[in-house]
Specification:
Elements: H1 15-42, H2 47-50, H3 52-63, H4 73-89, H5 106-124, H6 126-136, H7 140-155, H8 163-188, H9 194-203, H10 205-218, H11 236-239, E1 243-244, E2 251-252, H12 260-280, H13 284-304, H14 307-331, H15 337-358, H16 360-366, H17 373-392, H18 402-406, H19 419-452, H20 465-478, H21 488-517
Antiparallel strand pairs: 1-2
Helix pairs in contact: 4-5, 5-8, 7-8, 7-19, 8-21, 10-13, 12-13, 12-14, 12-20, 14-15, 14-20, 15-16, 17-19, 19-20, 19-21, 20-21
Amino acid sequence: MRRVVLRPYVDLRDIRRRLFYLAIFPALFLFCLIYGFFFALTAPYLIVAFSVPVVTLALLGIWALPELRAVPTTLMRFLFSGYIVTLILWPNYLALALPGLPWITPARLTGFPLVFCLLICVSTSKPFKARLAEIFGSTPFVWKALAVFVAMQFLTILLSKQPATSFSKTLVMQVNWTTMFIMSAFVFAKPGRLQRYIPLICLMSVPIAAVAALEYKEQHLLWDGHIPSFLKVDDIDHLMKPEFRLGTNTYRAKATFSTALGLAEYMAILTPFFLHYAVTARQMVTKLSSWLMIAVMYATIYFSGSRLGYMGMMVSALLYLLLWALLRWRRLRSDLLAPALVVSYPLFFLAVMGGSFFIHRIHVIVWGGGAQAGSNQARMNQIGMAWPNFIKNPIGHGTGMSGDAMGYGAGRFVTIDNYMISTALDYGAIGLVAYYAMFIGGIVYAFMYIWNYLGKSRDPETGYIIPISISVAAFLVIKFVFSQQDLDPLLFILLGMIVAVVHRLDVERKQLAADVGRGAAIPLRRVV
């Protein structure tokens, strides 16, 4: 009589199972023998390539974990906080460089464990996955555009001239971009956290500004000559080299960033937050401190000698003024100041832009003069060089391959200034559209909820969506003239903040509709 084994039980004495066990162990032994031989033969130069099987086994182990009641969300928040702090305050070129391994920086020491914690949570916790689905459900266009962009990042690896390099950089971007976006949306979906993290991000500008001022005075990086040998990477001499503006020989401070442009970018994207504090804070000390910090940031941008910083501050101020006037007009129908500002805003905008073109001093600050002519011409030349190469291959050349695709000769290429060029050459037309679509989509979601529901929200934290969305808009404007990716993780964190706040407003919107259905009165709240 044949034995019947009911699932999920298995027959351990089945002949097929025994043959499988007899075959798998010799095969595994042979693989480990060959793997160990070639690892010993090529180490330390191919350590990253030989780590792929180990990482794959780790991912399979995470996938096979059973359902857990408690997941490490507290540890994730701790690592997320550490990542933000180290991203800003620690120079990314000071790293432990071991042979055959990528640079080991504090940001990576917090970022990679954060990825594994996130994977564990997704693999073992249905409530965690349901929470993420609920958060991202309020902004479906954003996560779909991100999914398309990530797909193009991996697909274009197949077209890369250096697949290993493109694959390595793509994995790093999943840590610094995708993971930080998901974590930001998860962390800030809970009330109370925006009020702790945003002041932290803003306060970090104080030591950065102080370091930049001292550096500008000394005309060199403050830690130059004081770096221990174990933190010196191969090209540190180039990264530590002082920057001077061609034509004027003016020193350009860069503080903890790898370039002066990165320092100016950081100061520019913080402008909306200090404007928000200056306008909405109830304490006079906070108001005055915020206006003082705006002046400090302007001075820091001056120390950096970077026009993009002034451009970012100008965009932030113009957008914040417009939103302030529109929301004030909506809240106070009898007010005269707000409608006057809204009606005259086009003339005011034209006056500001006209002043930047026709007033020499302002023109030099924003658009540059003779000393910056070479930089302006280089950007125009890059657009002319990129277009025919993009037409030849509109699918993409792979992560990090835009410089090679530009067509520069050996030893001539330094950097690409326009981030649209970098994105288009790396990920093709689809990747370019997906990249900018997710940020523009996030801004559109933010403005829709700002206009329709923000004044009715009972949550005071949701007012932060105004400076966050303006900061992302200023970020995108800066990317037209600056393609370096030092602060791109912060851009994705800001996008995650938008997703989180929109979700919270969406939940309140549904509750508001229920309250109105019961006949409850809904007062408007002052947000700016």
